Amino acid sequence: MRRRDFLVRTAALGAAMTPVGVLGEVGEAHDGERRRALRIGLTPVFLDDQAAFLNRWRDYLSRASGYEVVFVQRSSYREISEQIASNALDVAWMCGYPYVMDSERLRLLAVPLHLGRPAYRSYLITPEDAPVARIEELEGKVFAFSDPNSFSGSLYPRFLLHHAGHTPDSLFRRSFFTWSHRKVVEAVAVGLADGGAVAGYVWETLDRLHPEITRRTRVVSRSPSYGFPPFVARRDLPAAVFSRLQSVFFGMRDDDEGLRLLTALNLDGFVPGTPEQFSEIREMARLVDRR
């Protein structure tokens, strides 16, 4: 991808973040009864056929749950957090970092499994030929973060810098947010950034789908494993709705269409998850953000 193409795509990101299949507060069930719309918030997924995939997933969840599912896309975790806090969303696929910052108002619904585990890593990446072994060696360089409220794309690299006695401003000549893990990889691949932090899950999935992009980058280091970005529900979501949707997520790997959707996402399924899975992220946030 050329540098100019990346800049144009990044500039157009805000305009692209529109609700998918917005149906309003209620939808019409096939049997004529009224049923409530279930609003699920997402930040941008990294698949090439994003709209087609989300339509398939929305239809699947609607059929399996008995609720009219509405996917609402927003460009940042902050927007997702604000909307679920104000009850504009019922459920959201959220990073572990904003989850621990607002866990008193949220309830874990389902945690994805990747490579058989409900965990993932943060990757530090550079261009393929960069002689870098640690983040401190990017002093005076340009660095790409994903989202300010991303664990793997913001909090973890800031944690590394904190331990080395630095901040992004003190170490890098310049840093910027791409608002997408995929775009971090693309920015490093085209030379827009000398390094970047990205979810290992996204880099590994892109490596399967688009090795022509990832082979222009190099994984310098991998963090320990931390809780995978979970699906969360607002705490006052009715228990029957919560339980029904939870059972649908857990059952996806036992259903042919559900398994096809999981395969497209490079996931193995979903499990309940516990707040303790995210305790290390909570402590890291308190240390780095002084909260």
Condensed summary:
With 291 residues, this protein is an alpha/beta fold. The protein is 41% helix and 22% strand. β2 (34-42), α3 and β3 form a beta-alpha-beta unit.
Structure commentary:
By secondary structure, the protein is of the alpha/beta class. The protein has two domains: 14-113 and 229-277, D-Maltodextrin-Binding Protein, domain 2, CATH 3.40.190.10; 122-223, D-Maltodextrin-Binding Protein, domain 2. 41% of the residues lie in helices and 22% in strands. It has 13 helices and 14 strands. It has helices spanning 3-11, 13-16, 50-65, 77-85, 96-101, 151-163, 168-171, 181-189, 200-209, 211-214, 239-251, 256-265, 279-289; strands at 26-28, 34-42, 68-73, 91-93, 106-113, 119-120, 122-127, 142-145, 174-177, 195-199, 217-222, 226-227, 231-234, 269-271. Strands 1, 2, 3, 4, 5, 13 and 14 form a seven-stranded mixed beta sheet that branches. Strands 9-8-10-7-11 form a five-stranded mixed beta sheet. Helix 3 (50-65) packs antiparallel against helix 12 (256-265). The longest helix is centred in the N-terminal third of the chain and has 16 residues, at 50-65. The N and C termini lie far apart (40 Å). The relative contact order is 0.18.
Q: Could you name the key traits of this structure?
A:
alpha/beta; five-stranded mixed sheet; 291 residues; disordered N terminus; 13 helices; globular; D-Maltodextrin-Binding Protein, domain 2
Number of domains in the coordinates? 2
Which structural class do you get from the secondary structure elements? Answer: alpha/beta
Largest sheet: 7 strands, mixed
Overall average pLDDT: 88
Helix/strand order = HHEEHEHEHEEEEHHEHEHHEEEHHEH
